[in-house]
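W.,

You were right to be curious about this one. When I first looked at the sequence I had no strong expectations either way, so I just let the prediction run and decided to look at it fresh. Below is the sequence, 613 residues in total, followed by the output.
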Amino acid sequence: MTSMHAYRTHNCGALRASDTGVAVRLSGWIHRKRDHGGLVFIDLRDHYGLTQLVLHPETPGFSIVERLRAESVIRVDGEVIARDASVVNPNLPTGEIEIRVSAVEVLSEAAELPLPVFGEPDYPEEIRLKHRYLDLRRETLHKNIVLRSRVIQSIRNHMFAQGFNEFQTPILTASSPEGARDFLVPSRIHPGQFFALPQAPQQYKQLLMMSGFDRYFQIAPCFRDEDPRADRLPGEFYQLDVEMSFVTQEDVFAAIEPVMHGVFEEFGQGRRVSPISETHTFTNDFGATFEHKGFERLTYAQSMAWYGSDKPDLRNPIKMANVSEHFRDGGFGLFAKILGADAKNQIWAIPAPTGGSRAFCDRMNSWAQGEGQPGLGYVFWSEDQGGWGGPIAKNLGEPTQALMESLGLGAGDAAFFVAGDPAVFAKFAGLARTRVGTELKLVDENQFKFCWIVDFPMFEWNEDEKKVDFSHNPFSMPQGGLEALETQDPLTIRAYQYDIVCNGYELCSGAIRNHKPEIMLKAFEIAGYGPEVVEEQFGGMLNAFRYGAPPHGGLAPGIDRIVMLLADQVAIREVIAFPLNQQGQDLLMNAPANVLDKQLKELHIRTAPPIKV
């Protein structure tokens, strides 16, 4: 007779009606226990699923099982039997069978639980993270972490299929003056000196291109000592780091679109994904128009003007418009006065199809006041008047009809208006657009809507320091190259920089890189960095440029955000196995923590805690 495996012949998700009569051994956690008049029913759970067990009072070990708490680990022997038709569970893959238990062994007895696993009730984050091993047993979180693994495997498969090679770059590296704060690592054998954990493998991946590797990718850990947000945790995150040689922006788009489309189609549970075969017409900020296939494209300026954000949710069909000319010559005095006060001031309209009621407009106005605004001007279709109503329509008079028609609006609709300097109000206008779309149920949530944001400004004005500064990635190629840097107003220069946005989330940033030393030195000079500073801080890469550098570019989609979207979560910690909390602490491992004086002495470090006032 063949002896059974020590713990299991099958997992808890494997058995079906066709296995009826088979002698089996299962091991797992007691997910739920129910006492039905002498019989005890147990849902036994492992990584793969649930199987129902039945124990009779005469079953050896029955009295032991009766007192066991949920989440205790047991091993059972028994026979697969078919459930009566009346108690078949169609929602469970093993729902047609149960196990008549003949023997039980307790492998590990659970103490009283600080966190319930069955039922998944909401629980405080502190308890969930302190006992993350229990939290990870819960079905939703467990599925999210498995999904993450499958998504990463799929991404790797897509990348290898396109001729990319995966290489690893250093985790101990040099501190960078750009971007967020570094995590520093003291060097024991070089007293007083520090490594830094990489914010991203930016310089290394460019150096790989200069080393002749052509197509690189890596599922790369990145470390930033920054404040947390719901969609960005402090500490570490992972990105699909990509770099390619001898490419234009179009080549990068053509390489990455099938990867993003493929992964979202594979794991999107039937939701529509922006097609990559569709042809779009794109007009840049300088009036040039061309057609392209793939995801929709918007310039940074268009995205801000139409959606009030550089990460627009295009599932919302509302597109804002500059309607300044309708108000410039009087009519509504307040808007005319604002337009006359400063040449950069504008009036923007936020169309609200189907929003034509005073009640909705009043609700939006109250919301705006709750956001710290004085209010939100509006025009709505008044059933009582059989035409356009509201203070703006009353003052503007007959031109209101032309204004609303220019927005594609008619009976039953409304529009909201914001006025002033767009640089100041654009973010609020974008929030109002989102609010209108959500309140009026205009957002098509059954899809993943991708777009590229392109043509970011190379530089911006730093009001605090009264100087020109980099607005995005300092290693990007300016459009127009050295000539643009030498002849154009820096604030008019566009860069070959681009983001992928999906459903209102920025999934990645990227750029065609600057690969010429003279362009790099000039770009940094404009931002106030002399050649000696560039040589000191970026000398490794600058020297590599001097020995033959290919044109190259890349990008880095965030793994955590991709999985977050696919798992229908709004917090990144729900797709990370062991995240830090909102204060940047690991409550499970109690980190960060004090270290021994001996360790500090070896590192030639003395701590200086902040003085309590």
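Here's what jumped out at me. The first helix runs from residue 62 to 67. And, maybe more interesting for your project: The chain has a mean pLDDT of 94.

Coffee later to discuss?

I.
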